[in-house]
Amino acid sequence: MNIYNMTFPALEAYFSERGENKAKAKIIYNALYKKRTSDFELSPRVTEMLQHDFTFESIKIIEKSSCPNAVKLLFGLHDNNAIEAVLMRHDYGNALCISTQVGCNMSCAFCQSGQRDAAPKTARGAGNKIRDLFAYEMVLQLLEAEKNLGEKISRVTLMGIGEPLDNLENVMDFINIIGHPHGLDIAPRHITISTCGLPKLDELSEISCNLAISLHAPNDEIRSRIMPVNSAYSIEKIIAFSRTRKKKTTLEYIMLSGVNDSDDCAHELADLVRGINCYVNLIPYNETSLSFARSSAERIKSFYSILIQSGIRAVVRKEFGGELKAACGQLRAERNKT
Ligand code: SAH
Q1: What is the β-pairing status of strands 93-97 and 82-90?
Q2: Which of 3, 64, 70, 310 could cross-link to 320 by cystine, CB 3.0-4.6 Å?
């Protein structure tokens, strides 16, 4: 077991079960997450026990490119798979967009991550997901990014490669690990889970993290065409979920030229979400090798205006790293082409 996979209570239980003082968990967390060292300064006996029971290896940055407000990082994992993370510099602090899986099984038509060519030829199976990430591989995207860039990361978005709800147990461990006050202490309100909506979403109505749901269409007909997951969790379910939730939900809406960006779609979307505690995040599409085009700036403006005039809270997402091919799965797909 990798030491960075251990939640605080699991570490306490580990020590208790071995007749050790569980307060050692605090020493470990303090070293790993505050001092950033795996030298715990514990007795040789405990050190030996930990070295026997845990691994300490990290994940490696294998490619990095930057533009003024974003840095993309490609990580190599122990099994030679690659995942990506993107640092975004906002005025209110740095946010890291991390991956939750190697590949993705959701097969959204416009997304590079779910495409078969996104996986190396040798690893192609029935789905496009190669495997789930362990919690430690998510934690280490954060630690390695901070170390490499020498910058503090105060927010985390789970919007990289993968579907977080298809790897929920590890994602929840990750959130517990980075949220612990003796560790990185990243509060739930600074963490955003982005999901295309799976039935498991219904279990998360009380979660204190921010939730962003990839809606991307004003009706089932369009959504089913671009998101096969709609057959498992339809628009009606997304709306019902957002309605029952006390916290505000973000509804993500990619602007795809000629697909979902007409004025009629904007009116339909406004009618759909009226009265819900949400805001609509309009996302300019990052063009990929797939046959979708980004809506023009004028189209986005018109769509946005209709929402605002209809009393819907909406924003157009500020773009980060478009020139870095930083949209979900683009980096990894480039690497696997070779
Ligand atoms: N599977 C999750 C999280 C990963 S994708 C989800 O579906 O929400 C994060 C967001 O990026 C989603 O809204 C996804 O639809 C969007 N996305 C994927 N490819 C994109 C692209 N090329 N340009 C802009 N956004 C994209």
Answers
A1: antiparallel
A2: 70
What are the pLDDT digits (tens) for 56-99? Answer: 999 999 999 998 899 999 999 999 999 999 999 999 999 999 99
Residue nearest to atom 21 of ligand 1 (CA): 286
DSSP secondary structure letter of residue 113: T
Ligand 1 site residues (CB inside 6 A) read 106, 108, 110-111, 159, 163, 194-196, 214, 252, 254, 283, 285-286, 288, 327-328
Q: State the chain's mean pLDDT as an integer.
A: 93
What's the mean pLDDT in 260-271? 98
Q: How far is the CA of 13 from the centre of ligand 1 (A)?
A: 38
Note whether 135 and 174 are within 8 A (CB): yes
Classify burial at 292, counting beta carbons within 10 Å of its beta carbon; exposed 0-12, middle 13-18, buried 19 or more: middle
Residue spans of beta strands (DSSP E) within 29-124: 60-67, 70-76, 82-90, 93-97, 101-103
- Ligand 1 centroid to Cα of residue 291, in Å, is 16
Q: How far is the CA of 285 from the centre of ligand 1 (A)?
A: 9
Residue whose structure tokens are 């789930």: 132
Distance of CA 146 to the CA centre of its chain: 17
Tell me the chain's radius of gyration from C-alpha atoms. 21
What pTM does this model have?
Answer: 0.94
- Structure tokens belonging to residue 122: 């040798």
- In the annotation, is 111 catalytic? no
Q: Specify the residue with its C-alpha closest to ligand 1, atom 4.
A: 159
